Amino acid sequence: MRTNVRPTKPTKRQRTRCGLCGKRRLTTEEHVVPKNLYAPTRRRGKTHWIVIAACSECNNGTTDDDVHLRFVLALAGQSNQAVKELWETKITGSLRRRDGLRRAQDVYAIMRPVSGSTDHMIYPANDPRVLKSVRKIVRGLARHHGLPWPVHDAQVIADVLRGPELLDVVSDGFSYGHVQSDIFEYHYLPVVGEEGLHSVWFIHFFERTTFRAVVFQTVEDCQRAWATALDAAPIRQHS
Ligand SMILES: [Zn+2]
């Protein structure tokens, strides 16, 4: 069932509907933006966490993906101060742990050499685990903002925004939010009644890596949009 009920602030542990799958279960607080993206000094004071109630099935089992997401985002581009502090306090240490080599290999798999240079670039869009984490953040934000829910993972298409600057694609109608603007910012636009669309999102990490996500009203609407995009692809190649 889809409703427009505003989310209540979750307590530590309660029996209620999960903000992600919508099932009535024992839930705990889920941090929509993974806490590990914040270096220790950035976790104090002014940070306003975005939390929703989520069941253990939706909430657990993503810790490893969250660490991977942090590693990929920390490597993808010019470091700002927030990333530098994260490297110094958290990431270097995590690579020394037992699974550090595996983590490095996971990231190496999505690096590509830059032609005419010894540099390598990292491509978060080539990493299914990163995109899944991004979709989960968008689903959580949709719940946080009281949009129709639950939003299933298969209702969301996410990709890296390449080319245009964020401010060129975000128009007046978009709402803005952030959890410390140099770490995580987002713009979103609820869309009602157009081609099965639910909402459009741009989420921006560390002032440089932007993902766009489109949420559809149903899984079928999402699949139809994929099929249309695939049909159109050969035409675009010839134009
Ligand atoms: Zn759930």
UniProtKB/TrEMBL annotation:
Q: Which domain of life is it from?
A: Bacteria
Q: Can you name this protein?
A: HNH endonuclease
Give the species. Mesorhizobium sangaii
